[in-house]
Write a structure and sequence with these properties.
This protein is an alpha+beta fold and 195 residues long. It has 5 helices and 11 strands, in the order H-E-E-E-E-H-E-E-E-H-H-H-E-E-E-E. Helix 4 packs across helix 5. The protein binds flavin mononucleotide (FMN). Flavin mononucleotide is lined by residues 24, 39-42, 54-55, 59-61, 122-123. Residues 24, 39-42, 54-55, 59-61, 122-123 line the site of flavin mononucleotide.
Length: 195
């Protein structure tokens, strides 16, 4: 059994049930102080390359992903009673795929992405919300349509390439089915876990 195939199929089922989390994941990392931190991210395609994410390299999470302190991706789709905890290394996304995701982005989303390298990096404190809006507005005047905003170099596409996936199937009476899949040379090894 390939857990990635299962995840792809369950995501389709969740989408069919209008699950608000079907395109969302939660990325946990470790802060420089050694604390835990987690945030929601848009989940792009899941395929044989892994779990696609777009992250700007000026953000705290990008730095934290590269310290070697570890990270984990969580998917939770309540409509289908599924949780997946995914670990593994990162691999870069092809430029063509990154450009494709960029083409789906709204004008506002593109301007925000450009804001980071132009003004302040993501998660930096600013004097006021108006300060941020003024910066966005100045770029909107310079780049009045979405096509005018080119993909900034600071936006990176990555795949989390899974080598460990913990699967949780919610069941009645709380006797949930939990399995830990570990990637081996010849495929996935599975262990049953106490729920
Ligand atoms: C549903 C949802 C989707 C999000 N998608 C993204 C995303 O794809 N990329 C991103 O950088 N931040 C995204 N965010 C914002 C992040 O949760 C977070 O606030 C931001 O990336 C800053 O994180 P950092 O300071 O840990 O780097 C999303 C938030 C929500 C609620």
């Amino acid at each position: 059994m390939d857990p990635v195939k299962e995840i792809v199929a369950e995501r389709e089922r969740a989408r069919g049930l209008s699950d608000p989390n079907a395109n969302v994941c939660f990325l946990a990392t470790v802060t420089p102080e050694g604390g835990a931190t987690v945030r929601a991210l848009s989940l792009r395609d899941i395929d044989r390359r892994g779990f696609g994410l777009l992250i700007n390299e000026l953000s705290p999470k990008w730095r934290q992903l590269h310290t070697g302190a570890g990270f984990e991706l969580l998917l939770f789709w309540p409509t289908v009673h599924r949780q997946y905890r995914v670990r593994g290394p990162l691999a870069p996304m092809d430029d063509a795929d990154l450009e494709r995701y960029w083409s789906y982005k709204s004008h506002g989303s593109r301007l925000l992405e450009l804001y980071y390298p132009t003004f302040e990096p993501q998660s930096t404190p600013v004097p006021s919300r108006q300060h941020l809006l003024d910066g966005i507005e100045s770029m909107r005047r310079k780049f009045p349509s979405p096509e005018d905003v080119l993909l900034p170099k600071s936006l990176k596409g990555v795949y989390l390439v899974p080598d460990r996936i913990e699967v949780w199937h919610g069941e009645a009476e709380r006797l949930h089915d939990r399995r830990l899949y570990t990637r081996k040379d010849r495929g996935w090894e599975v262990q049953i876990l106490v729920p």
